[in-house]
């Protein structure tokens, strides 16, 4: 059984062709060249993506059975509409699933990108074998996809898993429009904000940390720069990552006690900097969580890397074939 995947991102979009296995897994067969998102009206870009999808369909030995669309929220997965995501200016109430279904002649399903990645990690990556798992993005932002009792949980209005909005402190780095939020502390931008604050404090005490020896260099601090320095043993960078790790542990403790998952899979920055983040996070989890919930849960880095966007969109199609019949998958 063959599938089409459409990954719509704030910077670029891509279409892929995959094959569905009997166990619900997906194998990537072909990926079209990415298209830039900027500079195109939504329906114009969707038309180009559908043209790419038709090229993929020609490559398939038989007609694909479904299409999956992965896109940042907010969105309405039941109606298949994209609802003004902050990284997709002008994408206001765009009926993406209906458009793709009509253009390709196959059922189409729209899914929040964090949920799509959760499905991919559950079926193909570090979440295999679980019935209850949480996937955390931990990249540019922080969001969660929830697999509970063997099913994707999206909530009453597609807002389940917005873990980045949880407030962990009265003040702190801002993320998700809220100071001191989980995303504020545990995201690329959050680490940069932590780095700037902690470096400024040292500079004001008369120190000259190698990571940032002058005030003029504060704007150059990024999560990637801090991560590389921490890996090399820089003392300030390690302190920044430990501060982030403690907040990560605080947020994970809430999720562990609230949802009692078997596994929490964390992508992007955690997957690259686990050694620097995890010791501080683990210490908080051991202190804060209920023993039975903690014992049942393991925290691991994501298993899928560069191809996760393509596999996520394909897995959306595969998963909803298991749960839905006919037409636009609602």
Helix-strand blueprint:
Blueprint (H helix, E strand, L loop, with lengths): L1 E7 L3 E9 L5 E6 L3 E2 L5 H18 L6 E6 L3 E2 L4 E3 L8 E3 L1 H9 L3 E5 H12 L8 E4 L7 E5 L2 E3 L20 E2 L2 E2 L2 H4 L2 H17 L18 H9 L3 H25 L3 E4 L2 H4 L1 H15 L2 H6 L1 E4 L6 H16 L7
Parallel strand pairs: 1-5, 5-9, 10-15, 15-16
Antiparallel strand pairs: 1-2, 2-3, 2-4, 6-7, 7-8, 10-11, 11-12, 13-14
Helix pairs in contact: 1-2, 3-11, 5-7, 6-7, 7-9
Protein name: ROK family protein
Pfam families: ROK
Family: Belongs to the ROK (NagC/XylR) family.
Largest sheet: 6 strands, mixed
Helix amount: 40-55%
Structural class of the secondary elements? alpha/beta
- Count of DSSP E strands? 16
Rounded to an integer in angstroms, the radius of gyration calculated over CA atoms is 21 Å
Give the DSSP E fraction (strand runs of 2 or more residues): 15-25%
* Overall structural domain count: 2
Order of helices and strands: EEEEHEEEEHEHEEEEEHHHHEHHHEH
Q: What features would you describe in this structure?
A:
By secondary structure, this protein is α/β, with parallel strands linked by helices. The protein folds into two domains: 2-125 and 305-323, Nucleotidyltransferase, domain 5 (2-Layer Sandwich); 133-301, Nucleotidyltransferase, domain 5, CATH 3.30.420. It has helices at residues 42-59, 96-104, 113-124, 182-185, 188-204, 223-231, 235-259, 269-272, 274-288, 291-296, 308-323; strands at residues 2-8, 12-20, 26-31, 35-36, 66-71, 75-76, 81-83, 92-94, 108-112, 133-136, 144-148, 151-153, 174-175, 178-179, 263-266, 298-301. Strands 1, 2, 3, 4, 5 and 9 form a six-stranded mixed beta sheet that branches. The protein is globular. Residues 325-330 have low confidence and may be disordered.
């Amino acid at each position: 059984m063959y599938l089409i995947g459409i990954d719509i991102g704030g910077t670029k979009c891509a279409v892929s062709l995959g094959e569905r296995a009997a166990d619900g897994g997906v194998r990537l067969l072909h990926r079209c060249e990415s298209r830039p998102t900027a500079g195109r009206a939504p329906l114009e870009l969707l038309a180009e993506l559908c043209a790419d999808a038709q090229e993929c369909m020609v490559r398939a030995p038989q007609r694909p059975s479904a299409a999956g669309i992965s896109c940042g929220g907010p969105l309405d997965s039941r109606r298949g509409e994209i609802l003004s995501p902050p990284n997709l200016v002008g994408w206001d109430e765009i009926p993406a699933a209906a458009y793709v279904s009509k253009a390709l002649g196959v059922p189409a399903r729209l899914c929040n990108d964090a949920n799509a990645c959760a499905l991919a990690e559950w079926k193909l990556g570090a979440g295999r074998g679980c019935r209850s798992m949480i996937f955390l993005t931990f990249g540019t932002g922080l969001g969660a996809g929830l697999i509970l009792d063997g099913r994707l949980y999206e909530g009453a209005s597609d807002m389940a898993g917005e873990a980045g909005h949880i407030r962990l402190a009265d003040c702190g780095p801002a993320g998700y429009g809220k100071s001191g939020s989980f995303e504020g502390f545990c995201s690329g931008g959050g680490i940069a904000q932590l780095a700037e604050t902690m470096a400024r404090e040292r500079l004001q005490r008369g120190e000259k940390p190698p990571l940032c020896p002058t005030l003029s260099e504060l704007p150059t601090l990024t999560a990637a720069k801090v991560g590389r320095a921490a890996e090399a043993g820089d003392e300030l960078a390690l302190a920044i990552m430990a501060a982030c790790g403690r907040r990560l542990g605080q947020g994970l403790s809430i999720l562990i006690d609230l949802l009692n998952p078997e596994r929490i899979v964390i992508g992007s920055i955690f997957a690259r900097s686990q050694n620097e983040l995890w010791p501080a996070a683990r210490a908080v989890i051991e202190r804060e969580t209920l023993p039975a919930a903690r014992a049942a849960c393991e925290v691991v880095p994501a298993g899928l890397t560069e191809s996760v966007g393509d596999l996520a969109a394909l897995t959306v199609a595969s998963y909803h074939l298991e749960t839905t019949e006919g037409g636009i998958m609602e």
